[in-house]
Amino acid sequence: MTLTFALGVSLASILLSAITLWFIAMRLKDNSIMDVFYGPVYAVTALLLVVVSPGEPHPVAFLLLMLILVWAMRLSVRIARKNIGKGEDPRYQAWREAWMEKGAGYFAVRSFLQVFLLQGLVIYVVLLPFTLLIGAGGGTYPLVVLLGVVVWCVGFLFEVVADHQLDVFIRNPDNHGKIMRSGLFRFSRRPNYFGESLMWWGIAIIALGSVAFPLSLIALLSPLVITYIVYTVTGPMLEARWEKNLAYQEYRQETNYFIPWFPKERKKTENQVA
After folding, report:
1. pTM
2. In angstroms, what CA-CA distances link 251 with 118, 170, 245?
């Protein structure tokens, strides 16, 4: 398979998935289904690339495919458990109310462009390491691949543990309105996002060790994009909900936003006794 063909197959698969999910969302009146199927779109596209690839795919492709499938299925199951049966996510509800003020047609188009097509394009870029490997995989540098696997495993561990700790905290009714500050959240306000970013850095490193230079550098777009999104878009959106919470302001002073590190000493305010 040529790289051009692999890129085309990936784009076609993701666009078809985005359009299909958009139609379903319009029928269900629930744009947040994109969150549930975000991971599976990666999985379906990666599987399709392997299936349509003529001949035997690069050996490392099966390793990357396994890592992507494990990540995608775990993420999808977790989000489905949180969302199904609870209606549309509040973030999407707010967009629905604002966009519907300009009419149903505007809402439909805006939903497709901002929710489904935009996330589809993100998926296309983030999946580039795998697409490159399928379309232009060459020699393999085992030590580089091993490094990538180790980085991925560390990231996966961070995400799984942080998500589990957060879910347990939220399920406890005694914690309603409280701030999660234990476990990995003692060292980072977004340890799950840190793990997510680290996993895609690991996948990009694996691609760097399996695709010829300088084409392999394109793989770096994947972790750069996902890191930018979770660091500057998704994370701040969540933190905005707590901007007036005094306990969260203390938490912000003491705890790193992204990269885990030991808590800092909280700065004293004018209302505190020196």
Report:
1. 0.91
2. 33, 17, 10
